[in-house]
Amino acid sequence: MTWQATVLTLFPGMFPGPLGTSLAGRGLERGLWSLEARDIRAVATDRHRTVDDTPFGGGAGMVLRPDVVDAACAAAMPEGDARPLVFLTPRGVPLRQKLVRELAAGPGVVLLCGRYEGVDQRVVEARGMIEVSIGDYVLSGGELAAMVLLDSCVRLIPGVMGAAESAEEESFASSDRGSLLEYPHYTRPAEWHGLRVPEVLLSGHHAEVARWRREQSEAVTRERRPDLLTEQGRDASARAPLHPAASPA
Ligand code: 6GU
């Protein structure tokens, strides 16, 4: 019944971290979801608890060994565990609200956090891992990305969000890439340092407010995220080749 998150990491002390506070933390305390951070190093068998080795073919950095990662997965997932296994890596498919909704609707997730240069690709494929990235920038490990993914899922679990916070109306809410960025928000005072709140919001004309907000949403989306307005942009991740080098020019 409880949505179960297991994180496989070399730095279990990073969890729950920020997920232990705010909405997610309250949901955790109330048993609406669970979080287990497991140390990958705990399954290493040799004297030095080795988890990584140098990359075949040469190059910088270290690669997590497939036997160690496989043992960590096996130890974390009981026989018949139906939870998807997600590997956080900048090589992954971009995280979108559609995937977040799908993961949140299931039994939970097992998250593998990469460190060093990466994880041996054989265990990634043998375990059928979904490779996910949270954006086009490089983090020093998958742990912060795992927290981002978990936060985005947990807020969709029934009961986690209070009445005050609505999961609806927000940017990407209705159909993720088919939606618009949010309109700007204002509260009291109506004048601050000589700056007035847009008069239409004080008018009490609900239809005009709705129209102004829609126009603002369209304008900011056109300015910042024109890709969200075109079918091409919406479908870009679906059509993105898994192996760019092999795609036609
Ligand atoms: Cl999932 N991991 C790392 N290390 N860097 C990232 C990322 C993930 N997503 C964006 N950058």
Please state the CA-atom Rg, rounded to the nearest Å: 22 Å
The H/E string reads EHEEEHEHEEHEHEEHH
CATH fold naming of the largest domain: Alpha/beta knot
Biggest β-sheet description? 5 strands, parallel
The proportion of residues in beta strands is 15-25%
Helix proportion of residues, in percent?
25-40%
Overall 3D geometry? elongated
Pfam families: tRNA_m1G_MT
Enzyme class: transferase
GO molecular function, one term: tRNA (guanine(37)-N1)-methyltransferase activity
GO cellular component, one term: cytosol
Task: Report what the structure shows.
The protein is an alpha/beta fold. The protein has 2 domains: 3-154, Alpha/beta knot (3-Layer(aba) Sandwich), CATH 3.40.1280.10; 169-239, tRNA(m1g37)methyltransferase, domain 2 (Trp Operon Repressor, Chain A). It is built from 7 helices and 10 strands. The strands form 3 sheets. A 5-stranded parallel sheet has the order 2-1-6-5-8, sandwiched between helices. It is elongated and about 70 Å long. It binds 6-chloroguanine.
